[in-house]
Design a protein that fits this description.
Chain lengths: ~220, ~290
């Protein structure tokens, strides 16, 4: 499985300059949003990296080769989920480094450096995005699912900003309840539950994707 | 002799095409040419062997093991070359080597590098910088570098010039010097097979027309030609197929002795090529 994840990393090696430069752009653009620029920026990187993996598979029809290699189909599916998690970690580290540089040089008017809650939020967003999109990609391929995945991405991308905006600007019992939930999420217990929830989403999604992929014909 | 590949009653309905309960087998140490016109079912059969598509019924045994149950064990010992390149074109040969080497337990990097050098492939070149022939050689280098016992090739020579084709055929002849190894070679360029194949399996419209040693086919089948007046009911009946015009006829027959000696003496009898056999047989109904 590790060789499949290494493959994913090698596939995007021509795009590392863009991926490394992206955090600076993300901090510049998203620092004025209600949501954490670290989470939004990192999520964009996760999305980009995963798009590249599937784009190259589709462009070269390379799944035919990998299914012909001595890999279980289940292993191929698992490797895509592992690559998703790796991309999440890489994106977070890149945003953290960019944030550190920006704060030291006092640019982009950043109010704070990364926090644990950023990582939890990023993991949750990644899990929801991957949980929905990976089974579709693995079942139908990149080109058929691109439009649907862009919609999934934008829904997940804008939800934190919308929620933060609502909390800060609207007074309503439902919003108050949401606020309380988010305060709880910010606590250690809440963060633990969010991580657990993210893992559950990914596991269920992986089971569905595996059953799709087992039946797929190349 | 042990069978390296055994297909029994294999059936698959697929994209408005039906593979009709086909059966054939390949023994160790031989090259089998898998021939048939485009759309006959060659690629579908190979996809089923490689588990790329799911069969409806039947059995495929490779190395005496069920190909679905022991999929990964079997694939460790299979080298495959497909009709076109499916490797990532933006990656270099060196990078692909890094990805592929850990996949096989018996991967031999020294052997792979020797093939690269023999095939004149620069490891730093990206796949997209290679010609079609060079891409095919790269696929072959991958297929031959992990001590595979069964090499499966789906139309590897199609679209290649005669020099490249000849080189690939020589490589296959070398492989078969190791008597543990076998090659299943699908093609519609039958002249390639006349040089190297030991067995021929001919598939047409999803059915196996024949599967036997190449020399039996070339010895038994004959093309008979003569005046139209000699085309009697007996020839029409025993011919695999025939064609006629206002003056003459020609027919493909598998047993020349079934034609009356008196008639036979007036006919021109020729040895067919595999191409002739394929063309006559693929034409379907006997043409009047």
């Amino acid at each position: 499985m590790l060789s499949l994840c290494i493959r994913d990393m090698l596939l995007i090696k021509n795009h590392w300059k863009l991926i490394l430069g992206y955090p600076i752009f993300a901090l510049l653009v998203f620092s004025k949003l209600n949501a954490s620029p670290y989470v939004i920026g990192a999520f964009m990187i996760v999305y980009l990296m995963n798009q590249y993996y599937f784009y190259y598979d589709e462009k070269n029809k390379s799944e035919k080769i990998f299914v012909s290699f001595p890999f279980r189909r289940k292993t191929i599916v698992q490797s895509r989920y592992l690559s998703l998690i790796i991309s999440c970690l890489v994106a977070f580290i890149l945003m953290a480094i960019a944030g550190l540089i920006a704060i030291n040089f006092d640019v982009f008017q950043l109010q704070r450096w990364v926090k644990a809650i950023d990582m939890v939020q990023l993991l949750l967003m990644t899990a929801i995005f991957g949980g929905l999109s990976l089974p579709l990609y693995l079942r139908f391929g990149y080109s058929k699912m691109r439009a649907i995945n862009i919609i999934i991405f934008f829904i997940i991308f804008f939800i934190p900003s919308i929620i933060n905006g609502l909390i800060n600007e609207v007074s309503h019992p439902i919003i108050e309840t949401l606020k309380n939930i988010l305060i709880k999420v910010s606590s250690y217990n809440g963060m633990f539950m969010s991580v657990l929830f993210s893992i559950c989403i990914l596991l269920v999604s992986m089971l569905i994707a595996s059953s799709f992929y087992e039946r797929r014909e190349f | 002799m042990s069978k390296i590949l055994e297909i029994s009653n294999l059936r698959k309905e697929y994209n408005k095409f039906l593979l009709k309960d086909i059966s054939f087998s390949l023994e160790r140490g031989y090259i089998m040419g898998f021939i048939g016109p485009n759309g006959a079912g060659k690629s579908t059969t190979i996809k089923l062997i490689m588990n790329l598509i799911n069969k409806d019924s039947g059995k495929i045994k490779i190395f005496d093991m069920d190909n679905e149950k022991y999929d990964t064990d079997i694939k460790q010992k299979i080298g495959f070359v497909y009709d076109e390149n499916y490797f990532y074109v933006d990656l270099s040969i060196k990078t692909l080597h890094r990805i592929i080497a850990p996949v096989y337990k018996k991967w031999d990097s020294k052997k792979f590098n020797n093939y690269l050098s023999d095939f004149d492939l620069d490891p730093n070149k990206k796949i997209k910088q290679l010609s079609k022939g060079m891409k095919m050689k790269f696929s072959l280098a991958v297929a031959l570098s992990h001590d595979a016992e069964l090499i499966i090739m789906d139309e590897p020579t199609s679209g290649l010039d005669p020099v490249f084709r000849s080189e690939i055929l020589e490589i296959l002849s070398d492989i078969i010097q190791d008597e543990r190894k076998s090659v299943l070679f699908s093609t519609h360029i039958t002249s390639d097979l006349e040089r190297i194949a030991d067995y021929i399996t001919f598939i047409n419209d999803g059915e196996i027309v024949l599967s036997c040693p190449k020399y039996d086919i070339l010895e038994n089948y004959k093309i008979v030609k003569g005046k139209k007046s000699l085309l009697d009911n007996n020839i029409k009946r025993i011919a695999e197929n025939y064609r006629e015009n206002s003056f003459n006829f020609e027919a493909l027959v598998s047993n020349i002795n079934k034609i009356d000696k008196a008639v036979r003496d007036e006919l021109t009898i020729e040895k067919p090529t595999l191409d002739d056999i394929m063309i006559f047989t693929a034409r379907g109904e006997k043409s009047a």
